[in-house]
Amino acid sequence: MQRTRVKICCIRSHEEVALAVAAGADAVGFVGPMPTGPGPVPDELTRDVAARVPAPVAPWLLTSETHAEAIVAHAEFCAVTTVQIVQHVAPEVHADLARIAPWLRRVQVIHVEGRDALDLIAAYGDGPHTYLLDSGRPSVDELGGTGRVHDWSVSADIVKAAAVPVFLAGGLDPANAADAIRTVRPFGLDICSGLRPNTALDPDLLAAFVTAMRRADDEIYHRAA
């Protein structure tokens, strides 16, 4: 059975990277300038901290840019090779990025406001390398970090329909991580606010979250065996 991956987002320091890595994170997220929401850090800080993330853990840059050239410029400034595109960009943007920056891994956020999110998956196809399902509302510039859980039945259908791996985000915490894995069966979970009761990454909550994930993985494995 494939282990559910975990991305710890809203990283703010070298110390938080170390906590995430020690807990078994597969990726860490750095939030760039956003119109709303928690977690943004200066791009200069992202560039400094991301450069010291140890392999094979991947640093992801969350960008609100919507044009290919601007997305590439943001990634190059922060010296990262994975971008999490938090806006619903035109599908052509992924084709442009593949052409002008083939080295750049592209994670497309899908904000699950209803079943019409499945139409976005159909439109994007296998253009992105990965999807990440979140609970924002782009119509009001809410692009993540909401602490809200969306309709996981839609997310489960997206996982089945998508041609690429899918991460699940939105309102996750140690108490619901196992249910999220059982219900949605995502490739990975992505968490920010659920581990940050006072802005800083809480090591006890982090450990509890990863433990809940691994127990769910073990349960699914033994059920399938």
Using the 3D structure, state the CATH architecture. Answer: Alpha-Beta Barrel
Largest sheet: 8 strands, parallel, barrel
Name the shape in a single word. globular
Give the mean pLDDT.
94
- How far apart lie the N and C ends? 9 Å
CATH homologous superfamily annotation? Aldolase class I
Number of helices, counting only DSSP H or I runs of 4 residues or more: 8
> Total strand count, please?
8
Strand proportion:
15-25%
The CATH first-level class comes to Alpha Beta
Strand order of the largest sheet: 1-2-3-4-5-6-7-8
- Classify the helix fraction into a percent range: 25-40%
| Integer tally of domains | 1
The computed structural class is alpha/beta
How large is the radius of gyration?
16 Å
| CATH topology (fold) name | TIM Barrel
The protein's oligomeric status is single chain
Spell the H/E element sequence: EHEHEHEHEHEHEHEH
Low-confidence stretches: none
